[in-house]
Amino acid sequence: MRPAFRTALVCTSWTVLGWAAFAAEPAPLRKLEDQLAIQRAEAFAGRKLFDRAEAILRAVAESKTEASAEAQKKLDALAQERKKSDPSADAPPAYREALAEARRGCRPLMVFFGRDTCGNCQFTKASFDKVALAPLLDRFRRVMLECDAPENAALLRRLRAGQDMKVLPFIFYVSPRDDLVDFSSGGQDVAGLKSKMLGVLKRYPPVNPQQLGKLNRTLKLANEEMLKGNCGVADRLYHEVAASPFDAPAVDEAKAGFQIIAEQAGSLLKEGQAAADKPAEAALYLVVLARRFAGTKAAAAARTELEKYKNDPEVKAVLQADASAEKTPAVASTDPPKESVDPPAKETKAQPPKAKADPARSLLDLAKNLLANGRQDRAKPLLERILKEYPDSAAATAAGDLLRNLD
Q1: 141-146 β-sheet, strand order
Q2: Cα dihedral 400→401→406→407 (10° resolution)
Q3: Is there a contact between 215 and 317 (Cβ–Cβ < 8 Å)?
Q4: H/E segment holding residue 304
């Protein structure tokens, strides 16, 4: 028997419930929309985006509709499927939290397994405290774990699999997508750590934090609109994220999001067109498509199809039921959500004052990046400038430490 989420929905084939399943229901539009939401969750699960699948199913399960029980069953099945398919499902909370943060920040992880009584481990930890490594370590999300702790055993076993690692500490360099990039075994001095970190960082160069923050906020908005069923708005936001040049998990999730929306919208349009001899059935699919996927090509085609039935009494009944259930017009607005990432230019409400830029901190960050890439000749003048122009700042203290290390 196939697992509950390894269904045809993993592919591009969509099947929505037929008219017979809704004919006797008091709210067929709502039932169809709930079923579509469950299918979107299954599609995300099929792409191993379990957090997104869980959020959608939980929203349906808590909606107190007829689909709630089905959604709860699928939540239970999802938990089992996740345990089988998610490599970090058995990892300790510290690792899962670090991985989530690494994904948001688009930076790699450094996972350290050691033992308190291990001399090599203490030597390597002391190397972490050297000023020369500070700019490099800032670009990693570090996780320090005890190698003998039972809760860490599954993660250690997975990362160590197939590697010839016999001497502690074990250090694993992991991508934001939870893939092993590099590793080391045994005590590491500053030079050895620096060489490993620079090699990993070539694959994951630093990103602009402001741009990355906007990317994550836009993805969050897209997911919120998807939860509300506003797939047209979500589609536009997902495309905005996917157009980013960053090689980030957020981009992967956005691409999956708009692909799922396109597949489902296309299926709804086909169902509506195939039911041309049953106007009320056709209207059910077309109304949901026009309203919930507004702004997509499929939604525009649905509105054209609905024009053919505008004088049909059964179709009018479907449209009236739609307006009554949602307290909104049958075709939704394509306006962006209120929580716009870029607020409109003509904003009437008073905005909180923006935090002032810290030029000393900006210069320090630039100097650290130059040091991380071996450009001491360019970093040194910047550090000296901080001491001269901003002597009382916190950045000046850090700049002085870095300069002493260079000298």
Answers
A1: 141-146, 109-114, 170-174, 180-185
A2: 70
A3: no
A4: helix 297-307
Q: CA Rg, the chain, in Å?
A: 27
Query: Would you state the structure tokens that stand for residue 310, as one six-digit string?
Result: 């505008």
Paired with 144 in beta bridges are 112
Strand stretches in 27-162, DSSP E: 109-114, 141-146
| Spatial contact of 51 and 89, defined as CB atoms under 8 Å apart | no
Residues 54 and 136: their CA atoms lie apart, in Å, by 35
Reported as a single tens digit per residue, the pLDDT across 284-301 is 899 999 999 999 999 999
pTM of the prediction?
0.68
CA angle centred on 37, ends 16 and 281, rounded to 5° = 35
- The single-letter code of the amino acid at 308 is K
Kindly list the structural domains of the chain, giving each domain's residue range(s) and its CATH number in brackets, ordered by start: 8-85 (no CATH), 107-203 (3.40.30.10), 209-326 (no CATH), 363-406 (no CATH)
Determine whether 9 is exposed, middle or buried from the number of CB atoms within 10 Å of its CB (0-12, 13-18, 19+).
buried
**Digit-coded pLDDT (tens) for 268-284:** 999 999 998 998 889 88
